[in-house]
Amino acid sequence: MNIKKKLAMGVVAAALGISLISGGTFAYFSDVEVTNNTFAAGTLDINLKTTDDREEVNISVDNMKPGDKKVHQIRIYNEGSLEIKDVKLNVDYSVNDAAGDNGDEDFADHILVHIMTNSREVITDWVPLSEIEDLVVAEDLKTKTGRPYQTTHREVLIFNFRFHDNGEDQNIFQGDSLDFNLVFEASQKDGEYR
Fold this sequence. Notes:
With 194 residues, this protein is mainly β. The protein has one helix at residues 3-25, and strands at residues 46-50, 69-78, 84-96, 111-116, 127-128, 135-141, 154-163, 177-188. The strands form two sheets. The chain has a five-stranded antiparallel beta sheet, with no helix packed on it. A three-stranded antiparallel beta sheet has the order 6-3-8, with no helix packed on it. The radius of gyration is 36 Å and the shape is elongated. 11% of the residues are buried.
């Protein structure tokens, strides 16, 4: 072995020895703490009941004629764990034109609706069922507190329906039927720092 190789081997051996010695001389204390964290999403859950607390809300009237009216109350309950900013109402409907003679006339344009609560008018005038869209019917529904009829977690809606008698010939609607769903959609309150 020549001198350069011996010298290089010596330098490598010295560097290895120094690294082993210096690696063993760095001792330190340590401590570890762990936090247990959870993010849990709340729930939005509205429930509909009739005035006699039946769960099934069903509005049906047979043999209507122009001028007939129907009043129906619906209670909206906040059964979730989050407060509700508002509840919007939309109507989904279909018309069964028994004689096929309605042409451009929409039976839902002749069924008028007026909605109010115990303290305010939701709609200030009679509106055709066909025009109800994104109508705010309830606001600020708090979460349930355990008391069965606390007003902070429910809203009572009074629906007045009327087959509008427009004073004209409405014979084209004889035998027709209107199937409709009242679609209530709850929205959460805005997010906040917690």
